[in-house]
Structure formats: C-alpha cells, structure tokens
Design brief:
This protein is an alpha/beta fold. The protein has 19 helices and eight strands.
Length: 438
C-alpha cells in the first residue's frame, strides 16, 4: 500500500472512530464504507492521491476535520479533492430538495478525479440503501439519477457501473426512472425550456468570479487586540486571519478580536467561484474566505455585495430574466392569448405606451409595453414555467418574482442592496445556480 494511502486510511479510521460513526442500516463501523469506496477507485487506476481522498471523502463533512488540516497532512491536491466532495448546502438553504440541488451544482464543477470518487461513493451507498430501506431508496435513486447527469466526466468504467446499479435497483423497486443523456441543445424535447437563459448564466459565471471582489486577508500568528484592530482599521477589514504552523485556518473579528473562530470548509470558495456561490456562503456566514491553490488567501464580506462588479452582475442577471419573459409568454400563449391574464387597467396602460412608441416611430409590441411585474405574473399561470426554475409551487415562485422585482428597482435607483435585499439576493443566487446546471 502506498504510504500516502495508508496515512489517509489511518487518519480516516481515527477521525470517524472518535465519533463512533457507523453505517445507518448495518451498524458496521463507518470505515467499512470508506474501504469500499477506496477499493472501487483503486480498481480503475493507481492514483495514490485519489485513493487517499476516497478514504478521506467524508472527514470534512462528518468529523471535526478541516480542509486546512488535510492540506497540512496530505497536501493541497488531496485536500482539494475532499473539498470538492464535501456538500456545501446548509439547513438554512431550504428543504432537502433545494439542498440537494445546491450540492449537485457544486459537484457539477468538480474535477474529473473528484467525480470518479463520487461515482464510487454512489455505487456503494446505492447498494446499501436499496438493500435495507426500499422506501427511502426511491428518493435516493431519484437524487442519484440527477447526480449522474453531472458526473459523466468521471471514470467511464465506474460511470457505467453506477448506471447499471441505478437501473437494476430502480427495476427491483418497480420505479420508473430514466437518465437525461443529451445536452439540452441537442434534445428536441427540451425546446421551449429556459436553457437559453441557463447558457447566459454560464457565461456570466465565467466573467464574474470571486477573485474580482476578493480582498487580501492579513493574518497573524498570535492575535493581540491592539495589533488586530490596527490591521483592520488600516485595511478596512472586519476580519483578520490567524495562522497555525504558517497556514491560515481560523480568524478573529472586529467585534470579538480575542475570540478565535475556525474557518469551516463550507465557509470557503475557490478564487474562480461564481458570485452566486459567494452569496450562498454569505447567506449563512458573515464572511466568505477565498482559497488560492488550496490555501486561504482572501476574504469577502457582506459589504462587498455593494461592489460595482457585484451590482453589474446582479443587474445583468435580472435583465436576462426580463429579456426572456417576452419570448416565454409568446411560446406559452401564442397569438395574444396572454391578454386574458392581464387586468383591464394594466392592459390599457400598455396600449397607451404602445401608441406613444408608434407615434415616435419606435418599433414595439403590446407585450413589450407591459411592466416587468405584469409579465412575471402572466408566467406564473403556466406551471411548467416555475417547475423549470425548480420552484416547488406557485406560491414559492411568486415570492421569488417579487424579490427579483424589488432587487431590480433598488439596483436601478442605486439603492443599498445589503440591508434591504440581501435575503432576496441569496435566493436569486440559488436559482441562478439551478439554471446554470440545467
């Protein structure tokens, strides 16, 4: 056994053993699962870092281990793989379906090696769950099917094996299940969906990244109140990092400069992370730490939501939604059928605006003259609209639409969006990630 793999194996066994972690159904010691995942990964390649990460893949999520500790013990490559495999959703994000959607988006951006490990994890978990809990297995298989859609870059042998396990299990439970195999643009059945908006959201993610609003994080070895406050005043920061053995792994705040807090894996993003990922972290924590080459190097706090780049991104996202409303309405209600869904007063105002535009020789349509809020309300009458956005109900969709309208107005009038709209921004960020991952 490679030295790195053996070291990871021993560490994982001790970390889970301290908490007496056991498999839910069999009550076997948790390392039984870790061994199975590591063996599956080893069966498709001799990559010590991947096998080590397979042993460690649940340590950040389920034990007191931090990514900084893994970096120190096993190097940034192994720690980075474990970080990619760690769920990023929080209970505050919503119900299980919403959290799984967020975690799926995180996994979609993972490396090929991380996706290979995840495939091994799914295979073993699926066999265990379906063998012991048929009712929950129906939920798990649906979630597994969704994950497999974003794991195609993983090892081909394990991907095919995962597909076989999925379909065999679904057949055994008499559960109708299929995997979407084509890209949206290649699948005729997807015509009329919101994928054009999703592709634009992907482009936005490439343009607007965490590094554009990240500030360097000063750090100290032994925080003294006077020193820490002086650094914060000089650089206008609310936090300062604390180093242990040369690496930042905790922090102190202006409010409690002598209270050292650990930096959690769920509190960090890579410098290439999207603005949506940053906002999701800030929805739970006061600050978001940014890593470079697996090492914490920068920080973003809620005040940075006011950054010009962030406001540009938000306004662009809202504009994309607004641009898409017209074509969607025409698709759902052709030949002006949508007019029956608008009040006489709102329709009269749209007709007045259309007449004025025609007087000025400005080409337009009656639909284009409707207020943004009116268009959103029309779309809410079509169930497929809010289902494609991932909303569980019309009520949930209506709440987000109000958030979008409020955020749009505050952005347009240069209003503060942190104190008034942060909750809305966080919810919209979740939907953007949903769109981007299709």
């Amino acid at each position: 056994m490679h030295e790195l793999v053996d070291k990871a194996r021993q560490f994982a066994i001790k970390a889970h053993g301290r908490l007496d972690h056991r498999r839910k159904y069999s009550s076997e010691p948790y390392p039984v699962h870790l061994q199975a995942v590591a063996d599956l990964v080893a069966s498709v390649g001799d990559d010590p870092e991947m096998i080590a990460a397979a042993w460690l893949h649940d340590t950040i999520e389920d034990t007191h281990t931090t990514e900084a500790e893994l970096t120190e013990r096993f190097g940034p490559a192994v720690a980075g793989l474990v970080g990619e495999l760690t769920d990023v959703s929080q209970p505050a994000n919503g119900n299980r379906a919403i959290r799984k959607f967020i975690d799926r988006g995180h996994l979609a951006r993972a490396s090929q090696r991380a996706k290979t490990i995840k495939l091994a994890d799914l295979i073993h978990n699926c066999q265990d769950i379906c063998g012991h809990d048929p009712e929950f297995a129906k939920v798990y298989l649906t979630e597994m099917a969704a994950l497999l859609e974003v794991l195609r870059e993983g090892d081909a042998i394990l991907f095919n094996r995962a597909m076989e396990v999925l379909h065999e299990s679904a057949h055994g439970l008499q559960l109708p299940l299929h995997i979407v195999g084509d890209r949206p643009e290649d699948n005729p059945s997807d015509q009329g969906s919101l994928f054009p908006l999703g592709r634009m959201a992907q482009q936005f993610r490439q343009v607007f990244t965490a590094r554009q609003i990240t500030r360097a994080l000063p750090s100290v070895d032994c925080p003294a109140e006077e020193t820490v406050l002086a650094i914060m005043d000089r650089q206008r920061l609310a936090v300062v990092g604390v180093r242990e053995q040369g690496m930042v792994c905790s922090y102190v705040t202006r409010e409690t400069p002598l209270h050292i807090r650990p930096i959690l894996a769920k509190q960090t993003v890579a410098d290439s992370a999207s603005f949506a990922e940053v906002i999701l972290v800030l929805g739970t924590f006061d600050c978001c730490f940014v890593t470079l080459f697996g090492t914490i190097a920068g920080v973003i706090d809620k005040a940075d939501i006011q950054h010009p780049y962030m406001r540009m991104w938000l306004f662009g996202i809202v504009t994309m939604v607004e641009m898409e409303t017209g074509p969607l309405i025409e698709r759902f209600w052709p030949d002006g059928e949508w007019q029956s869904l608008v009040s006489e007063g709102r329709l009269a105002k749209a007709n007045m605006l259309l007449a004025e535009r025609e007087r000025r020789n400005q080409p337009s349509t009656l639909l284009a003259c409707l207020q943004f809020a009116d268009k959103l309300q029309i779309l809410l009458e079509n169930e497929s609209f809010f289902r494609q956005f991932g909303f569980p109900s019309k009520k949930a969709a209506r709440a987000i639409c109000k958030d979008i309208e409020s955020l749009r107005n505050n952005l347009a009038h240069a209003q503060d969006i942190v104190s008034h709209d942060f909750a809305q921004v966080a919810r919209i960020a979740q939907r953007i990630e949903s769109l981007r991952d299709g």
